[in-house]
Amino acid sequence: MRRTERFRVENSNSLWQIYKTVSFWKVMKNFMVIQLARYTPFLGMKNWLYRVFLRMKVGKQSAFALMVMPDVMFPEKITIGTNSIIGYNTTMLAHEYLIKEYRIGDVIIGNEVLIGANSTILPGVTIGDKAVVSAGTLVHKDVPAGSFVGGNPMKIIYTKEEMEERESTFSNREGEST
Asked: Using an 8 Å Cβ cutoff, are 32 and 59 in contact?
């Protein structure tokens, strides 16, 4: 189960009530910063923009590929550990607007996590250290540390133990060929 706060709305759907949720000026500032960061090829600059202007928590040597889209309304709810890679065109959402309610939740991405291109991360999920998320995955629940997940709906492809076994087999084969 994702960890989100739920807020009921009356009358129109929750997206029509967006500026009761978050300031128009905050959304405008965040949008401009995100658009600049999406296109810049400088990894250090992206991290600086996200940390300083969006108040995201971004660890050292984490890398955002081209066109990554952090949450425009609540980017401060996104935490990314050290030495992680967020793949091309990935979307990280800390909110979701529904008909009768909206939800807000933290997105926590651990250390040394690899997220493949075109993935979507929903609010309220945690991706554990050293996890691998396959390209095009909808991350709708927590990802255990060290596991390899993929698909829509997301499924565990390899557990941490299976990944460690695969790595040791690969290392042994590599050692034999030299």
From this structure: no
**Residue written as token pair 């952090």:** 70
pTM of the model: 0.92
Rounded CA-CA distance 127/120 in Å is 12
Sheet strands side by side (includes 78-80): 57-58, 78-80, 107-109, 126-127
Return all residues near 104 (Cβ < 8 A) that are at least 6 apart.
4, 5, 7, 74, 77, 94, 95, 123
List the domains of the chain with CATH numbers.
Answer: 5-177 (2.160.10.10)
List, for residues 95-145, the tens digit of each pLDDT value.
999 999 999 999 999 999 999 999 999 999 999 999 999 999 999 999 999
Q: Are 145 and 130 in contact (CB under 8 A)?
A: yes
Is the Cα torsion angle 12, 138, 140, 88 positive or negative in sign?
Answer: negative
Q: Enumerate residues 6+ apart whose C-beta is below 8 A from 29.
A: 53
∠51-3-70 over CA atoms, to 5°? Answer: 30
Contact 123, 107 (CB under 8 A): yes
Q: How far apart are CA 50 and CA 34, in angstroms?
A: 8
**Range 78-97 burial, b when 16+ CB lie within 10 A, else e:** bebbeebbbbebbbbbbbbb
